[in-house]
Design brief:
By secondary structure, the chain is an alpha/beta fold. It is built from four helices and 15 strands.
């Protein structure tokens, strides 16, 4: 499987000729998504910075709520966080568990509270965790660390943090890395991963955003 970060909370997860895109964004965010082709798009919530599915090529299936989905052998489970139907609409967030190539990938979206015991049980085990680390409207760093400890992922890929050109005020990646006891983590363009290449202990992988700055 190939994992590419397009910026903010948007990733392309590709297996063979099939791809899932998470939380696509418009050019107005300060980055340009391009027009990636996808079988399906997951939307964690309805803010345009996480739901711009019109920018995705291929007439994708749009998944934007809790539930179970099966698409050409790819299984997706949406789990509402942190609470349920009584949450105000603006605070609802859906985390997605995506099962591809016998890997379990968890995209937490704009989660702003730690997971409940029940939510942890629904998501585990997690091989690869896409974790927001920029704070502000999402988890603060101590909460992000608590989520890592509860889910025990094999790989953590940080997302939703400050980037050059990004017009969203967020904290930097360095704060999270220091909290994890890491220094001098070298970003990479993409991650190619399989069940046999997963690390035995939790590893943080920093990806370079492949979306480019939008023209002003």
């Amino acid at each position: 499987m190939e994992i590419t970060w397009l910026g903010h909370s948007c990733f392309r997860l590709r297996t063979g000729d099939l791809a899932i895109v998470t939380d696509p964004f418009p050019d107005s965010i300060g980055l340009r998504l391009g027009e990636p082709r996808a079988l399906a798009v997951t939307v964690s919530h309805q803010h345009e910075n996480h739901s711009y599915w019109r920018g995705i090529d291929g007439s994708p299936n749009i998944l934007q709520s809790a539930g179970e989905y099966e698409l050409s052998g790819i299984f997706v489970t949406g789990i509402m966080t942190p609470g349920g139907e009584r949450d105000p609409q603006g605070k609802r967030n859906t985390a997605y568990l995506i099962e591809m190539e016998n890997l379990r990938l968890c995209h937490l979206g704009d989660i702003s509270h730690v997971l409940s015991t029940g939510q942890v049980e629904e998501l585990m085990p997690v091989d690869i965790l896409f974790l927001p680390v920029g704070g502000v409207c999402t988890l603060e760093i101590p909460q992000a660390i608590e989520v890592v400890q509860s889910l025990e992922p094999r790989v953590i890929i940080p997302m939703h943090y400050r980037l050059p050109g990004l017009k969203v005020e967020l904290g930097g990646l360095d704060i999270f890395l220091r909290a994890m006891g890491l220094r001098d983590v070298q970003p990479q363009a993409r991650l190619n991963v399989s069940t046999t290449s997963l690390p035995s202990e939790t590893r943080v992988v920093v990806l370079e955003p492949q979306g480019v700055r939008a023209e002003v």
